[in-house]
Amino acid sequence: MKAGKTIGWMAVLVACGIGRVVMAAESGTATAEEAISKVRAAASFLHSKGTSGYAEFSNRDGSWVWKDSYVFVYDCRQDKMIAHPMRPDLVGKPIMQITDNAGKYIFKDLCKAGTQPHGGWVEYAWSKPGAGALSRKISYALAADISFTSGIQVSAGTYDETMTIKELDAVLEKMSDPSRYQAL
C-alpha cells in the first residue's frame, strides 16, 4: 500500500476514534482495552489463586507484562505494594504517600478509582519502561475479590498522551456491557 493511502486510511480511523487503538497496537504501546482486559484477568486470577498468586505479578518476564505495560498489585487497606514487576524496590513498602512530580497522590486516587463498580482510571506521571523520562500514564484500577482479604487492587496502564479520561471511561463502559463488547 502506498504511503498516501496509508495516511488517508489512518485519518479515517482516527476520525472514527479507532486510529489511536490501531496506532498504539502497531507501536508497541498498550491500549486501554488491553489494560482493562489484563486487569480483569488479574483480578480473576487472584480470586481463584488467592494470596499465593501474588508472586506471579513480580516477574518482569511473566505473562502480566506486555508491550510497554504491566499489572501491579497493591493493598489499599494495609498501605503497601504487594507486587510490581518493574519496581521490586516498592514491594512491601507504604504506597499512600507516593506522589508524582505534580504532587498527585497516585495510590490514594487508584484506591478510590478501584472501588467503583467497574473500576476506574487515574492519570499521573510515571517512568515508562525503557524510557528514562517521566511520561503521562493513565492506569485502570480494579478491586480484587480474594477470600479472607480486603483492600487488594490490581492496576495496569497505558502511556497515552492524547486520550482523555472521558474517552477512557467510554472504552470502560463499552467493555463493561457484554452486549457491546467481545473480549480480546
In the predicted model, the low-confidence regions spanning at least 5 consecutive residues are 1-25
What Rg is obtained from the alpha carbons, in whole angstroms? 17 Å
Anisotropy-based shape: globular
Secondary-structure-derived class:
alpha+beta
| Average residue pLDDT | 85
SSE topology string: HHHEEEEHEEEH
User: Percent of residues in beta strands?
Assistant: 15-25%
- Strand count: 7
Strand order of the largest sheet: 4-3-7-6-5
CATH architecture: 2-Layer Sandwich
How does this structure look, described?
By secondary structure, the protein is α+β, with helices and mostly antiparallel strands. The chain is 33% helix and 20% strand. The chain has one domain (30-175): Beta-Lactamase, CATH 3.30.450.20. The protein is built from five helices and seven strands; from the N terminus they run H-H-H-E-E-E-E-H-E-E-E-H. A five-stranded antiparallel beta sheet has the order 4-3-7-6-5. It has a two-stranded antiparallel sheet with strand order 1-2. Strand 1 (65-66) and strand 2 form a beta hairpin. The longest helix has 18 residues, at 32-49. The two termini are 27 Å apart. Mean pLDDT is 85; it is low at 1-25.
